[in-house]
């Protein structure tokens, strides 16, 4: 699966030709939509950051987070740009074939491509989106089950029979035998999976925006919790690179908007601006890409772990960066609504999320400590490192990747942890 880009905050109903968007049916409806997007963006950042602390302290090797190094951070904008442009070319080709006035003409064109030795896709855009829907159905169920697992463990009665299960796949034999998958779960995990599957079926059948948001929130929370920057310098490299990436692909081209509108997957949060008029059947959506939540979110989570490492019983840098994120996203919404044009949210989020906490550190004389802090030093020596950068705007492909990590020793887990987004 291709890397998922940090999409810009924009109106999903904007015209593809000029990028301008329709206003909601009423000013109250637009305010409700933007306020809801802001609230939904804050939830995975706050709770994901809190859970990232427990994740870093965990003694279970299978629950260790993925650590992003400076090399990963530097490569990611380049990789993301290539995959984004590849998706754009694919969707434009599908739109071109579907726009031919004659099916026979389209077939003749395909035959001429084959006669010239050119490869053509046998799948239409609808088939591709169907395959993607099934893919995200599986990953979404796993991610949502992991998200609700702690809450369900507190809700379910303590006397509930809790049997243990194990999925074990190995390769080789004898001394060369290696675990491909050694996955242990229990009855409580199965209950979480069953509940998440209901949401997944709802999403597959209806593509309802509430089901989309449930999966999107789960992806974002998993990403903030399980993707860890190793230090502040790496965070600055990652955010700085994606700052340029977001501006170029939103303001310089129509690539970002085209892909975001063509890609039917829960990689964005949406909320209808005409909810007050049409209720749950509303269809005039404002949207926020998961990358605009996860990318700043993992930096904010890093600052929370830095706060804790100072052992001053305060979360100064976490709250500073959290307030900065609220300010930056609110500014994005204001500019978008004022100019009626898609906005690269990272244009506003990156300067404030980096600048505010650094200014506070400068005033407190802790700037050197901030840049010398190493989050990875808190983790066990066998913490997995990235061999390639995982999907981040909701990082779903790493859910499947985490289940394929090889380990020479059996791994045990208490709770369902399907992903390392």
Automatic annotation (TrEMBL):
The keyword Transport does not apply. The chain crosses the membrane at residues 31-53, 73-91, 127-145, 236-260, 285-304, 316-339, 345-363. GO terms for molecular function: aspartic endopeptidase activity, intramembrane cleaving. InterPro entries: Peptidase_A22B_SPP (IPR007369), Preselin/SPP (IPR006639), Presenilin_C (IPR042524). It is found in: Endoplasmic reticulum membrane; Membrane. GO terms for cellular component: cytoplasmic side of endoplasmic reticulum membrane; lumenal side of endoplasmic reticulum membrane. It comes from the Eukaryota. It holds the Pfam family Peptidase_A22B. GO terms for biological process: membrane protein proteolysis; signal peptide processing. It is a multi-pass membrane protein. Its main location: endoplasmic reticulum. Keywords: Endoplasmic reticulum, Hydrolase, Membrane, Transmembrane, Transmembrane helix. Belongs to the peptidase A22B family. This is Histocompatibility minor 13. It comes from Leptobrachium leishanense.
